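User: My collaborator sent over this chain with a note saying "see what the structure looks like." That's all I know about it. Can you take a look?
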Amino acid sequence: MMRRRPFALHASLLACSVFALCTLPFAARGQTATATLSGTVEDENGAIIPGVAITAVNNGTQLTRQTTTDENGYFVIPLLSPGSYTVKAQGKGFAPVDFT
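Assistant: Without extra context I'll predict from the sequence alone. Here is the result:
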């Protein structure tokens, strides 16, 4: 005759429930709809250019995000909402450059 173990069943259900509740915030976080724009600014000869102002403008909402390249010519603009952007790079002594 088979014996039932109600405690083992309840413990298993409790463990599954706790696991599901603990992983839920991570699952929801993985579904964000944002992007990160990053890059390095160089001149025609491949030399890095620090201190360049980078501006990203969402063409649909006109939301503007700005940053400046670091000493290695690198920049990052995180958490951009979905859409089409125009990106402008403007450095001292250089003509502004627009990318769409």
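A starting point for your reply to your collaborator: The longest helix spans residues 6-29.
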